[in-house]
C-alpha cells in the first residue's frame, strides 16, 4: 500500500479514462485492508480508487506496475487482479501507508468485471502513455508521478516468490474442489443406478400396462447408463473368481457390439468399450487381458483369438470363417487389376486397418491371394494360379 498516494479525482493534462469498476476492495499483499466498496477508475496514466464517503482519492501510477496476474474466484471468493509493483520514487506524495513489506497488491472485484478490467489495464501498460506525456502537477494533486528516465522496473525476488506461492495455493484449492466434485458425482451415479433398478423392476411387474415402445425406449436409457453393478476385486474374492466373473461381464456387455462389428473386435477397442461402460470403476489392461483369456474356459459367447502375426482380437464363437474368407476374396476380385492394400479393404468392409491386413494375410495363407511388395507398398491380388489349376 505504500505505492498509493492521496490525490483528488480530477484528471491531469492528457489523462483519459479507459475503464471503471464498482465495489472494489484493496489488498496489501495478501491481507485485506479497510479500503473496500470503492469505485476504481483506470486511466492511461493511473489507477484511481475512491469511496463515496471520501472527498479525496487514492492514486497509483501505472509506471510502477511491473506485472499483472488474474486470480480466479471460487465458491466463497471473488476474482482478483494481482499487481506486482516497483519501488516508488522518494518524491512521491504521502499515502495511507508509509512503508509496506509487500511488493504486490490485489484488487478484489466483488461485482464482476475482472477480466474486462484486466484487458484494459494490459492495454494501458502496453501503450505506456506516461512515457509520451509530460504531466503537469499542481499543489492540489500534489505532483506528477512520472517515472524517472532510465529506471528499471522489477518486482524483486520476494515478489516473484510470493506470486509463485499464491499460484500454488490456488492450484491446491482447485484440485481439492475437483476431488470433492468427483466424490459427489460418484455418489450421484450410485443413486441413479439404484433408481434405474427400481424402475426396471416395476416395469417388469406392470409389463401388461406399459406399451412396447415405452419399454424399448426405457431400455435404451438403461443401456446408456452402462454396467449397473460392475465386477470388482473387493466383491468377487480371489483373482481366479474375479477374472471369470469379469469375463462374463465383458462378454455380456460386448456380445452385440462384436456382432455388429462383423464378429471380430480388436483387444484395444474391447479395453476402451468396457471401461466406458463401467464408468468410474475402470479396469487395467492386464485385468482385461486375463479376463479375455478365460472366456473360452467359461463358455462365453465371445473368446480371445490370436493371429499368427501376434495381433489379438475378441471374436464371436459362431463366426463363419468361410464367409469371412469369401467376403475378402470378393473384395480382392473387385481390385483384380490394381491390387488391394489393407487400407482399401478397410474402406470396403468398414474394418480397422489392422484387421484388414490380417484378413489379407489369412487369404494369402489359404492360397486365395498373392502379394506384390514394391516401393509403393504391399498389395494383394486374387490367386489366379490357384483358380486356373483348379479348372
Automatic annotation (TrEMBL):
Gene3D superfamilies: 6.10.140.260, Pleckstrin-homology domain (PH domain)/Phosphotyrosine-binding domain (PTB), Winged helix-like DNA-binding domain superfamily/Winged helix DNA-binding domain. It is found in: Cytoplasm; Endosome. Keywords: Cytoplasm, Endosome, Protein transport, Transport. GO terms for molecular function: phosphatidylinositol-3-phosphate binding; ubiquitin binding. One of its GO terms (biological process) is protein transport to vacuole involved in ubiquitin-dependent protein catabolic process via the multivesicular body sorting pathway. GO terms for cellular component: ESCRT II complex; late endosome membrane. The keyword Iron-sulfur does not apply. InterPro entries: GLUE_dom, PH-like_dom_sf, Snf8/Vps36, Vps36, WH-like_DNA-bd_sf, WH_DNA-bd_sf. Residues 1-137 form the GLUE N-terminal domain. Component of the endosomal sorting complex required for transport II (ESCRT-II). Belongs to the VPS36 family. Component of the ESCRT-II complex (endosomal sorting complex required for transport II), which is required for multivesicular body (MVB) formation and sorting of endosomal cargo proteins into MVBs. This is Vacuolar protein-sorting-associated protein 36. It comes from Petrolisthes manimaculis.
